Amino acid sequence: MLYDPSQKYQPHPPIHLPDRQWPNKQLTHAPRWLSTDLRDGNQALADPMDGLRKLRFWELLLQCGFKEIEVAFPSASETDFQFVRQLIEERRIPHDVTIQVLTQARTDLIERTFAALEGASRATLHLYNATAPLFRRLVFRQSKEEIIQLAVSATRQIRALCEANPQTQWSYEYSPETFCFTESDFALQICEAVADVWEPCCERPMIINLPATVEVNTPNVYADQIEYFCRHFSRRNAVCISVHPHNDRGSGVASAELAILAGADRVEGCLFGNGERTGNVCLVTMAMNLYSQGVSPQLDFSDIKHVVEEVEQCNQLPVHPRHPYAGKLAFTAFSGSHQDAIKKGFTARQQSSSPLWEMPYLPVDPNDIGCSYEAVIRVNSQSGKSGAAWILEQNHGLVLPRGLQQDFSRHVQEQTDRDGNEMTLNALWQLFRKLYGPHQLADRQLLEYRSESQTEGGLSLQARVQTPEGILTLQGKGNGLLSATADALKSQFKVAFSIEDYHEHTLGRHSESRSAAYIRCTFANGESCWGVGIDNDVARASLQALLNALPIKSSN
Ligand SMILES: CC(=O)SCCNC(=O)CCNC(=O)[C@H](O)C(C)(C)COP(=O)(O)OP(=O)(O)OC[C@H]1O[C@@H](n2cnc3c(N)ncnc32)[C@H](O)[C@@H]1OP(=O)(O)O
Ligand SMILES: CC(C)C(=O)C(=O)O
Ligand SMILES: [Mg+2]
After folding, report:
1. Where in this protein does the record put region Regulatory domain (predicted)?
2. Which atom of ligand 2 is nearest to the CA of 209?
3. 209 lines ligand 2 (CB under 6 A)
């Protein structure tokens, strides 16, 4: 019998909004961002950040371009309180950055919060209280009216304290915590009551934050709730609507994006989605999603590896290798058809002057976030010919002919299948060298050659080749250098073969660059072998390629 406890749960009802407008909207500009790494992110860590880690994170957030940063829950701990004091007393807050702090609706905690902010030139005071039925009933054991009173009297206290400290430019944020499962009309009612006390205006900015404290519904329902709120809130134009999605259902980013379509002005979240339980919405993903749509996020993640390293150090949590944009594997293709498409994409890009990024399987250019193309393709048993060929091209400048790509891929496949793991760049190169050259193999190294035109036409060749047994002298005739060398090899080794494929290219853009030559020989039994040669002299490269192609024993 299937174990099915689903009857324990019931859906949170959607709201009725048949004339919703958000599905027809598009993301056209960046929202205001608030990083709550130092508060919501911090409160979710097993070992909350100490002052030093907080400071390091703060500096990183400034580097990334955040202008609003929730820095602490000052009444929670001495560390948090002192961190706010440090930022203010050491004048670490840039003039265009606003710090924000959180408090519960409790008189003593509000007083302590104000004490932390003394001397700040600008600050946002953030008050929250849960409003959903379950929380009213279970946590507060209060009626709707009492819950409204809690928020209203805390707001009164906050406004009075702000007015008593006019040296600070105050902004106020109110969060009906658990908004996403609060009755929409009650959320409106409590926010109206709070706004009536605060009286938002230019001198008294106000943010109303509508959190998905626990994500309990599909993102479209959250978007409906946000649009409904925006359409019915009487002071809509006087306030900034913020959203604060968590990621319990794994759709925090989608919730935030649809919420912006639905009218939200601001998004609160954490880098790489740290935060309570499954985390806050990931601001890196949000920002990079905008970026990949051609909208500037107004945040700088051009050195994403540095951001990852810093956040991992501060949070002492790893960023998942599959994390969008930032994960170590976010731009890596192991599978053959992906690699083939990416390789073709890069070739097309080299030949195009279009500034647009059009790359199969890579939504953004890894270069834009400080990553190289090196890790874009990695090779294992799921890979095809293009993967290995790409790696050789990127790392050794070799542009393998299609037939050689197929041949090499067969050998790579055999090895990866046998070993069951990824082939490193070095292992791939060693296998290539063992199979085809391209530098002189120890048992057949071309030392020198001499060729002479013959009076009757054609050419005669003499070459000296180093073998383990000693120096071998080859002599042959032909129409050209290669056919004369083939003639010499055929008579020396008593082997019948013909040259079926020949390709060459320079390894670089300069005339003094080395050349690579690729040769495929076919034997009487139908089998064929490839050889590769690299040399400063293209003729030497092709002779060496031919020597490397032949499965000959050098004993003579
Ligand atoms: C969704 C969020 O992320 S909200 C932010 C949550 N963050 C944190 O809690 C981190 C910091 N918090 C703390 O350090 C502590 O909780 C403190 C210092 C704020 C308070 O600690 P304590 O006084 O020990 O209270 P405790 O943590 O148990 O809080 C529960 C009490 O606060 C009440 N409460 C909870 N939220 C609020 C609120 N927003 N406003 C007013 N009272 C509240 C509860 O009803 C409960 O009251 P009761 O004891 O009368 O039943
Ligand atoms: C304090 C509030 C905004 C919060 O963190 C939440 O609801 O998740
Ligand atoms: Mg939160």
Report:
1. 439-556
2. 3
3. yes
